[in-house]
Amino acid sequence: MIPATTSVAPSAPSPTPPAPPPSAPPAASSAPSPRGPVAAELSIPSIGVEDLDVVPYEGTTDDRPGTRIQDRGVAASPYGERGGVGPGDIGNYLVTAHRLSAGGPLRELPSVEVGDQVHVTAEGTVYTYEITETRSTSFRSTRSLAEQRAAVPGEPGEKPTRAMITLSTCATPEDNAAGNFWRDALHNPEHRIDKIGVLTSTRAA
Questions:
Q1: Burial of 121: CB neighbours in 10 Å, binned 0-12, 13-18, 19+
Q2: 74 or 30, which is more confident?
Q3: How far apart, in Å, are the Cα atoms of 35 and each of 54, 79, 117?
Q4: Which residues, 6 or more positions from 181, have their beta carbon under 8 angstroms from its beta carbon?
Q5: What are the positions of the active site (predicted)?
Q6: What pLDDT is stored for residue 35 in this prediction?
Q7: According to the 3-state scheme, what is the secondary structure of the chain?
């Protein structure tokens, strides 16, 4: 007698899992990318400064390379780890120039007032800043220098959210009048006069 056999139905294939949806492209950052160092021209209508060359260099305010640039009768703008940003960039755009020597391009900077406009032209764009305050920097104070060079002027360690500018020149007449004849190795007096501004508009040159 032939034993009965049991018929086994083939198992149904496992369903294929649906393919995952394609990954969305990374969101673009809304913050403009800094361009790095660029040559520029500075105009301050309230004191008659027009198209003053601003030369970028790697360093910090009023160091030896920056002083040599200023000695040519132009302005200097430090960038890099110890410097500032470029024109129009988020952070502190640092610009320094002589007040008494090399033609004194910033001789009238102390008379610039809150609300005055400053124009910086670079790579076909005019950046307009409005002066918001005046500060004094001491070369003999590490804290004071850190405040001048901070990404947010006056607030070391703060993360910048706006494009700002610091225009700086010597306070030699004021120091001398106060009987302060201190000088550093580059003959800078103790104090600098700094005008701080914020970017208010941009337009094509």
A1: middle
A2: 74
A3: 16, 11, 23
A4: 175
A5: 98 (proton donor/acceptor), 170 (acyl-thioester intermediate)
A6: 61
A7: CCCCCCCCCCCCCCCCCCCCCCCCCCCCCCCCCCCCCCCEEEEEHHHCEEEEEEEEEECCCCCHHHHHHHCCCCEEEEECCCCECCCCCCEEEEEECCCCCCCCCCCCHHHCCCCCEEEEEECCEEEEEEEEEEEEEECCCHHHHHHHHCCCCCCCCCCCCCEEEEEEEECHHHHHHCCCCCECCCCCECEEEEEEEEEEEEEEC
Residue 1 has pLDDT above 50, yes or no: no
Residue 13 in domain: no
Single-letter code of the amino acid located at 126: V
- 191 within 8 A of 138, measured Cβ to Cβ: yes
Average pLDDT across the chain, whole number: 89
Q: What is the pTM of this model?
A: 0.83
Statement: residue 28 has pLDDT above 90: no
CATH assignment at residue 58: 2.40.260.10
Instruction: Domain of residue 153: give its range.
Output: 40-204
- pLDDT of 29 > 50? The answer is no
Q: Could you give the number of structural domains in the chain?
A: 1
Interatomic CA distance for residues 58 and 5, integer angstroms: 90
What are the structure tokens assigned to 18, written together? 């649906």
Looking at the domain assignment, is residue 122 inside a domain?
yes
Domain assignment present for 195: yes
Given this model, what pLDDT does residue 37 score?
78
Residue 131 counted as domain residue: yes
